[in-house]
Amino acid sequence: MTKLQQLSKAIAFFIALNSSxxxxxxxxxEAQALIQELGLGAAATPVANDPDxxxxxxxxxxxxxxxxxxxxxxQALQQAxxxxxxxxxxxxDSSENQAQxxxxxxxxxxxxxxxxxxxxxxxLRWIHNYFVGMDMCKGYSQKQLDTITFTNTKRLSGPAIAxxxxxxxxxxxxxxxxxVRAQTExxxxxxxxxxxxxxxxxxxxxxxxxxxxxxxxxxxxAHGLGMRVIATRRSSREGPDFVERVGLSDELYAMAPxxxxxxxxxxxxxxxxxxxxxxxxxxTKPGAVFLSVGRGKSTVTADLVDALESGQLGAAGLDVTxxxxxxxxxxxxxxxxxxxxxxxxxASADTFNRGQVIAVENLRRFATGTPLLNEVxxxxxx
Length: 382
What we know:
Layout: H1 3-19, H2 29-38, E1 57-61, H3 70-81, E2 85-89, H4 95-104, E3 107-110, H5 114-119, E4 126-129, H6 142-147, E5 149-151, H7 158-173, H8 176-184, E6 205-209, H9 213-224, E7 228-233, E8 245-248, H10 252-255, E9 261-264, H11 278-282, E10 288-292, H12 301-310, E11 313-318, E12 338-340, H13 349-368, E13 375-376
Parallel strand pairs: 1-2, 1-3, 3-4, 4-5, 6-7, 6-9, 7-8, 9-10, 10-11, 11-12
Antiparallel strand pairs: 5-13
């Protein structure tokens, strides 16, 4: 590198620092509390290590979400950004307007989609996705994969999804669907219609498959109900105190036969696609309950149906299915021992507010050049 190039980079770096000099220097109390409570991880390296880091302009898509004050969100973003310009987009903006704004943006907060990646300019170095799933973040070039840092809201939806999973479990084991059907028919039906003989949750064993942010919150609540909790995870055998045993991914088949309840909290990767199949259900404890709040494509639907029809599985609570939406012809709709919700487990005003707090915090970190939270490796899918 020539002296002139070195000088140019030094000047550009000084300009970037100057533009962020009025940004907040520390996380808000709300952000700090979430970081500690949910164990949010920061990237290994500061954003400022990228020689092309320029926090000059960030485009933000503002979504109308229940329980969220958009004006407060905008104000918090502007305060966190300091000297970095913020340009706001809203759903329904013309593609031409979005393309023009993205062409000049150094960062983007919104939804990572093929159109966003296609319209992004050469200066884009950061995309923050409002949701955990990165399924729609497709169409990126190799250069974008190498130069853009992707972040999302992983772990932030964990509490809501965990409550949803436990709600489905309690409903199934207490025959609530049968009583709801009787209520709609104005029948005082005291005898359960499903024949579910699961019993109480206390002292039963739950296997959490995927002990990440969501899986940990499910495990926490199951333990609170008196269940014995075991789990698998890809990264290590370490887990919180309320998980009795943590196995690696390849120990799934060894651990599944002991489980009265199996909770799928896996992300979708090449390794997890179709992992809950005929072979898996065949080795589960007869009458076990299957909960799926991870990704629908991790389960082979036809094999799940067979396991439910045969009685190998006693019941299933499904917030995710394959495909989505689930076709009207699917036999799952008519099964009395199945609860289906339309991929809404994360939906909660608290989830949305946590997401906005961390979007603001990541903007602050981008503006000041510090390590971002919730970095995603698109090569792995999470």
